[in-house]
TrEMBL record:
GO annotation, cellular component aspect: membrane
Protein name (Swiss-Prot/TrEMBL): Phosphate ABC transporter, ATPase subunit
Species of the source: Rhodopirellula sallentina SM41
Xref: InterPro entries: AAA+_ATPase, ABC_transporter-like_ATP-bd, ABC_transporter-like_CS, P-loop_NTPase, PstB-like
Gene Ontology molecular functions: ATP binding; ATP hydrolysis activity; phosphate transmembrane transporter activity
Compositionally skewed regions (Polar residues) per UniProt: 26-35
Length: 313
C-alpha cells in the first residue's frame, strides 16, 4: 500500500492557548485568575467532564503518517476510557505514550491492533486508519491486521518452545515449513532484535531458558518476524533490570526507521531517550503531542511540564 502523505491536521486548535500556555506559571494553585475570574486549569476542567482540544504541535504535520487516529472514543461498558483522541503516528519514528496510571495509554495501544475486540462490552467511535484504510471497519480481517501490528507486552511471554520456534512462530501459523525460509527469517529477526550473537549457538534451547531481557528481545524478534508495519510496545522494559532495560531501549532506537514504533511507558527518561514524538494523555484525553525534545524541554502546556518534571502523576 502507498505511504500516506502529510495532510493538514484538523485538530491543531489553538483556541485554548491563552489560558493554558505556561506563562504565568502558578505551580502552587489549582486555578488561574483571568480578568478577575477564577478559571480552573485544563486538567481540572477535563476531570470535571469538559472536552478540550488537544495541543498538537504543527511539526507533526510535516511527517508522513502511517497511522491516523481520528476522534477515537472507547467505552468499557458504561465507562468511557478514551475521549476523541486524534493523532497522526509518523512513519518510521518512535512515538511514546505517557501519562498517569489509568489515563488510557494501553487502551489506545490495544485498540490499534483491535485487541480490545476480545473484551466484552467494549464499544468504540471514531476511526483509525492504516495507510488511509480503516482498521475498525467490520470487514477488516483482524488476523491479518494483527500481523501488520506486532505487539510486545510488559512481561516477556516467550512460548514454551525453542528459541528458533519462538521466532518463526508467526510463519508456522501461516503454514510456512520450508527450512531455509524459516532459518533465514530466524536469523534476520534475531539480528534485528540484537539477540543473534547471544543465542546463535543455542537456537534449540527453550526460550524460557533466557534471561528476562533476552526473553523480551526474543519477543521483539518474534514480533518483527512477520515484518509488521507497526510495532506496539506496552511498557516493554518495566519488568526488566536496568541493564536489560538499557539493551531493549537501544534496540527500540535501532528499530526506528525500519519500523514505526508506538511505545507505552511510565518512565519519563525512557520516553525522552527512545522516542521521536511524545503524546501526553490524561483521563482518556490527549493533552499535548509533539516532538519529544520539545515536550520535555519547552512544552506548550504547563500541565505537560508538571507531569514530565514529576510534579504530579
Ligand atoms: N478490561 C477493562 N475493563 C474495564 N475497564 C478497563 C479495562 N481495561 C482498562 N480499563 C479502564 O480504562 C481506563 C484506562 O486504562 P488503561 O489500562 O488503558 O490505562 P493506562 O494509562 O495504560 O494505565 P497504566 O499506566 O496503569 O497501565 C482505566 O480507568 C481502567 O480502569
Amino acid at each position: 500500500m502507498p505511504r500516506a502523505q502529510p495532510q493538514k491536521h484538523p485538530f491543531t486548535d489553538t483556541t485554548m492557548q491563552n489560558e493554558t500556555m505556561k506563562e504565568p506559571n502558578a505551580q502552587d494553585s489549582s486555578a488561574v485568575a483571568t480578568n478577575g475570574q477564577t478559571q480552573l486549569r485544563r486538567l481540572e476542567r477535563i476531570a470535571a467532564g469538559e472536552h478540550l482540544p488537544s495541543e498538537i504541535h504543527p511539526e507533526i504535520m510535516d511527517e508522513s503518517a502511517i497511522l491516523e487516529i481520528k476522534d477515537f472514543c472507547l467505552w468499557y461498558g458504561a465507562k468511557q476510557a478514551l475521549f476523541d483522541v486524534s493523532m497522526r503516528i509518523p512513519a518510521g519514528k518512535v512515538t511514546a505514550l505517557i501519562g498517569p496510571s489509568g489515563c488510557g495509554k494501553s487502551t489506545l495501544l490495544r485498540s490499534v491492533n483491535r485487541m480490545n475486540d476480545l473484551i466484552d462490552g467494549v464499544r468504540t467511535d471514531g476511526d483509525m486508519q492504516l495507510y488511509d484504510q480503516s482498521i475498525l471497519a467490520p470487514d477488516v480481517d483482524v488476523i491479518e491486521l494483527r500481523k501488520m501490528m506486532g505487539m510486545v507486552f510488559q512481561k516477556p511471554n516467550p512460548f514454551p518452545m525453542s528459541i528458533f520456534e519462538n521466532v518463526v512462530y508467526p510463519l508456522r501459523i501461516d503454514g510456512e515449513n520450508n527450512r531455509a525460509v524459516l532459518e533465514e527469517v530466524c536469523e534476520r529477526s534475531l539480528r534485528g532484535a540484537a539477540l543473534w550473537g547471544e543465542v546463535k549457538d543455542r537456537l534449540h534451547e527453550s526460550g524460557l531458558s533466557l534471561s528476562g531481557g533476552q526473553q523480551q528481545r526474543l519477543c521483539i524478534a518474534r514480533a518483527i518476524a512477520s515484518e509488521p508495519e507497526v510495532l506496539l510496545l506496552d511498557e516493554p522494559c518495566s519488568a526488566l533490570d536496568p541493564v536489560s532495560s538499557g539493551k531493549v531501549e537501544d534496540l527500540i532506537s535501532e528499530l526506528a526507521g525500519q519500523y514505526t514504533v508506538l511505545v507505552v511507558t511510565h518512565n519519563m527518561q525512557q520516553a525522552a531517550r527512545v522516542s521521536d514524538y511524545t503524546a501526553f494523555m490524561y483521563l482518556g484525553h490527549l493533552i499535548e503531542y509533539g516532538k519529544t525534545e520539545v515536550i520535555f524541554s519547552e512544552p506548550r502546556l504547563r500541565e505537560t511540564e508538571d507531569y514530565t518534571t514529576g510534579r504530579f502523576g
